[in-house]
UniProtKB/TrEMBL annotation:
<protein>
    <submittedName>
        <fullName>ARM repeat protein</fullName>
    </submittedName>
</protein>
<dbReference type="InterPro" id="IPR055296">
    <property type="entry name" value="SRL2-like"/>
</dbReference>
Amino acid sequence: MKEAEPNDRKIGKLCDYASKNPLRIPKITDNLEQICYKDLRNEVFGSVKVVLCIYRKFLSSCKEQM
């Protein structure tokens, strides 16, 4: 299985969407958390790296909403 690499453009679009729709942030983060746990159990560490990059961007771009 090919390891996932962070796509800055897609992560940026997700962060823009989240900042414009702050009520969706809990659902987005819940989904990211589920993906992360599932991939950790299946030892797909590339996806976990992507999820961590998304969280890092969320923290920097959506501080007011979180």
